[in-house]
Amino acid sequence: MLKLIKNGEVYTPDYIGKKDILITGDKIGYILDNIHMPESFVYVEIIDATGKIVVPGFIDAHVHICGGGGEGSFRTRTPEIQLTDITTGGVTTVVGCLGTDGTTRTMTNLLAKARALEEEGISTYAYTGSYQVPIRTVTGNLQDDIILIDKIIGVGEIALSDHRSSQPTVEDIAKLAAQARVGGILSGKGGVVNIHMGDGHRELQFLEEIIEKTEIPIRQFIPTHMNRNESIFNRGIGYAKKGGIVDFTTSTTKKDLEEGETKCSKGLKIMLDEGVSIKNITFTSDGQGSLPNFNEKGQFIGLNIGKVTSLYGEVRDAIIDEGIDISTALKVITANPADLLNLTQKGYIKEGKDGDLVLLNKDNLEIDTVIAMGKVMILNGEILVKGTFEK
What we know:
The chain is α/β, with parallel strands linked by helices. The protein has helices at 83-87, 107-120, 142-148, 170-187, 205-213, 230-241, 254-258, 264-273, 310-320, 326-330, 335-340; strands spanning 2-11, 15-24, 27-32, 44-48, 52-56, 58-63, 91-96, 123-128, 152-160, 192-197, 221-224, 246-249, 281-284, 290-294, 300-305, 357-361, 367-372, 375-379, 382-383. It folds into 2 domains: 2-55 and 347-383, Urease, subunit C, domain 1; 57-341, Metal-dependent hydrolases (TIM Barrel, Alpha-Beta Barrel). It is built from 11 helices and 19 strands.
């Protein structure tokens, strides 16, 4: 069935005014001022977007889809994510990853969950590896994973400057980046290296050294959790001005914010005021990952779970609380990750792109309707599609 979204104000993410959008199958077929369908034509579902803003489906490029954690022993391993944990946040594309645990959470488990979520209706990709170096892959070789496995688009999350990392050398990280880059070039993928930045004193030192001393370009790396404390955030400003990517994690706790973590919406405002290009900033949720709490001795004392719904929540706060233009704020979860990861069908509302759309209520910018690959997942706030094991 065709789907016609009428009378919405469209952000591609750039604003193009009031338009009608016709979705044909799983693609955006036409974007016109007015699309008229004959009343006798019954094979079209019309969605009235009057009073609504139409934006691209959101991309969350850092989600622990098969669960994460375990820093407090086996009972603290977080469960697998469910479909509506994702779609209720307006997210239509996720990139799955492993974290601290690369033993009981495996690459085959990650790929199986990615394929399950795609069967349920959203687009999925994955990184190969986890915190540890040498990394554990599917084929036995990082480059082969990226080239030969359709869903794998890069490597990560590799831990640096963190007491949970395997303490790799600069040379170890440079070699990983080189393999990932060539794998991406040969397969038409991003081939990025997703870096978990801990709160250790070395911060971005390894990445800066690799960029200075090798031919690996700065945008090959995506250092995430760059808002975890004031020191690394401030260092990230200079890094981003050199062309580097800074990724902010939207899942947080009240305690973390009180102890110096920068709220993403405020961090975006500060970066832009400092002259950082919006193209160099992304948000990810760290959804379903554990948010562990350690004392000054590095001992585990508790945890929370990351939420995908926090992703758009911080973008909305950036618009409403920080006064950032809608088009600008949206780019950190649409166009920017799509361009960085070479997801050529994602991140934009454009004829021929995938039919991933989110309708927001214009008065409060809350999520009203979510369409993934041309399928309506949420309509007027009502969940229409649930995961296989959701009630």
